[in-house]
Specification:
The structure is a single chain. The chain is built from seven helices and 17 strands. It has 294 residues and is an alpha+beta fold. It has two domains: 136 residues, Rossmann fold, CATH 3.40.50; 135 residues, Probable inorganic polyphosphate/atp-NAD kinase, domain 2 (Tumour Suppressor Smad4, Sandwich). The protein has a six-stranded antiparallel β-sheet with strand order 7-6-17-14-9-10, covered by helices on one side.
Length: 294
Amino acid sequence: MSSSFIPKQVVVAVHPRFPEALYEAQAIVDYLNEKGLDAAIGSLNNEDLRKRVKAGEFDLLISVGGDGTVLRAGHLCAPCDVPILGINMGKLGFLIQVQRDSWHEMIDKMLLGDFWIEKRLMLRVELFRAGEKQGTWHALNEAVVSRGQYLNPVHISASVDGLQLTTYVADGLIASTATGSTAYALAAGGPILPPELRNILIVPIAPHLSIDRAVVLAERSSVSITVHSENAVLSVDGQTPIGLDAGDRVDVRSADYSAKFIRFGDLDYFYRNLTAHMDQNPSNREVEIYTVVE
């Protein structure tokens, strides 16, 4: 599968707390320079770099790190329509196709147009208090209304497209994208959705005497989560939690833009990547260790 789009202006970005990635990022910049491209390098927290991305100076961002780095890159690049190529320096890398030892080969393919662009749903998350909007955020993975640091479960209700769905007494409720279905939603027992789906997934966390099944909403549906407890917080893509009051409402719907990723090979890459990660399950490793000892 080939693309007519060939990146010309590239920025290589790293997570500020991932110093090892900086050395790899510099090697990538040097390699791009050898190929005749001018490439910038910097931290995703650097305000000057962020302004340059938003100003449209780059047509590709190479993210060097783990899934957390890709999340940060997605928040920055999606509104600017800048695609992302992830280079995995972390342990899992559910969002990343290219590994540390193969980026030379993949960059060569990219410069020949031997790639395709995958679009992934972003969520728009809005918090309302007493009818007034308190803030807006965007998520690539999920928005979570939960009990935060408190031990008591939260009492929350959910409605879909303005119609009451159900109420929960639980540790929390996740509103997830298909991308997020392999993140917190998976840990909470939710299904794995193919990444190209544009549905919102609702997954309760440790529900008590409540519906314990995940719900997949129709494409373009929206969900409203109303809090009926004083001990709840809102967290968007794992960012700093925001305290919620009883009566607060969190609205989640599709964002007006998507995150774009450079992908290589056929469309089944996701399932191969998924299988590789599932093989890293600790229970699988314990079996292997036991077999070796035997």
